[in-house]
Design a protein that fits this description.
Order of helices and strands: HEHEHHEHEEEHHEHEHHEHHHHH
Distance between the termini: 56 Å
Strand order of the largest sheet: 2-3-6-1-7
CATH superfamily of the largest domain: P-loop containing nucleotide triphosphate hydrolases
CATH class of the largest domain: Alpha Beta
Largest sheet: 5 strands, parallel
Number of helices: 15
Length: about 375
């Protein structure tokens, strides 16, 4: 394959297995999925593993070619058949003879062209514009679309007979947000591709990768590829944190996610303290140092004591140790009070409350359940 399909998620592994099963056959394939999810890469993979791999793979974006030129592009034309036809032109269908014709975004094809394409697929012949001599073609058709063709048929924008002709084997490519665990591998892959000659590969730190995984990627893999290309140009060979990148160079919404991930990490710190474990009770790799260092009696660093002091002053305490309440209990009270007030201000709307608190919605729901808080919608 010209490019490798990256990913170890169940969805991607199932996709690779399906490609391996259908590639050696002659069955027509309809690939569905959101724009940028990698449909053309899947089509190329089917061709590369097929018995036609030594012959052309010809891709046509049906939505990118003007309607008045699409017939000529697909079927070719003879010299003088229309104004500007100064020579014979071999169409894409004929160019794909013995190989694979990939019809990308076939859902955007005009109805008039759908009729003509159906005839070509049924009779295996093509008639160039301005000619009355049919030309035999041997092609395998792989089509793709981001549209729901069954809905398009109901709305009268796509022919049912063409749909059943191309949809012998349906293949669905999952959006990147449904396989976010693959993001780090894709980041590494594109960083290597876009690294300049003799320049070290760009590296993103752990928090940046968590932000990338939390982002929903509306543009899918294409958007991720473009972002890595941009970062590789602006920060060649560097190790980047999300704070190192100008907000205008990040996708819309990713900057806010950086704050959410930071809040989530702070919550993790509070959770450790709730469990009676200070940050000092961990080793450098994040593991607990053992019973002697863990627990409420663990030795606190100066930073830990300063953090405790701030909390105490905010709550009007001089020293929590003299008040008979642990730091865990005080932080729990503070958190409950803040969440309950935010829920009241947002009329019990959990999504709005999460945005107000700048925390992830799932984290907020966990806290609401933990504290058994009242969520009453207005």
């Amino acid at each position: 394959m010209s490019e490798t399909i990256i990913g170890n998620s169940p969805a991607t592994q199932d996709l690779l297995s399906l490609i391996g099963a259908i590639a050696p056959t002659e069955a027509s394939v309809l690939i569905t999925g959101e724009s940028g999810a990698g449909k053309e890469l899947v089509a190329q993979g089917i061709h590369d593993k097929s018995l036609r791999s030594a012959h052309p793979f010809v891709a046509v974006n049906c939505g990118a070619i003007p309607a008045e030129l699409l017939e000529s592009e697909l079927f070719g034309h003879k010299k003088g058949s229309f104004t500007g036809a100064i020579s014979d032109h071999v169409g894409r269908v004929q160019s794909a003879h013995a190989g694979t014709l990939f019809l990308d975004e076939i859902g955007d094809m005009p109805m008039a062209m759908q009729v003509k394409l159906l005839r070509v697929l049924q009779e295996k012949v093509v008639v160039p514009v301005g000619s009355n001599k049919p030309v035999n073609v041997d092609i395998r058709v792989v089509a793709a679309t981001h549209r729901n063709l069954e809905e398009e048929i109901k709305e009268g924008r796509f022919r049912a007979d063409l749909y059943y002709r191309i949809n012998v084997v349906p293949v669905c490519v999952a959006p990147l947000r449904d396989r976010c665990d693959e993001v780090p591998a894709l980041v590494e892959h594109f960083a290597k591709i876009f690294a300049a000659d003799k320049t070290p590969t760009l590296v993103l730190d752990a928090k940046f990768l968590r932000v990338m995984k939390a982002y929903d990627w509306p543009g899918n893999v294409r958007e991720l590829s473009n972002m890595m290309h941009r970062l590789s140009v602006l920060h060649p060979g560097q190790r980047l944190s999300v704070q190192d990148v100008a907000p205008t160079m990040l996708p819309v919404g990713m900057g806010e996610l950086a704050h959410d991930v930071g809040d989530s990490e702070q919550s993790s710190l509070l959770d450790m303290m709730f469990d009676g474990e200070s940050p000092a009770a961990q080793t450098a790799d994040g593991r607990r140092a053992g019973p002697a260092a863990a627990g409420p009696q663990a030795q606190l660093s100066e930073d830990d004591r300063e953090f405790e002091s701030i909390i105490m002053r905010a709550q009007g305490f001089d020293d929590f140790r003299q008040q008979g309440q642990s730091l865990k209990g005080i932080l729990s009270d503070v958190e409950q009070d803040i969440i309950q007030r935010a829920l009241s201000e947002t009329d019990g709307n959990v999504s709005r409350c999460a945005k107000l608190l700048r925390m992830q919605r799932t984290t907020l729901i966990e806290r609401i359940k933990k504290y058994d808080l009242k969520v009453v919608a207005a």
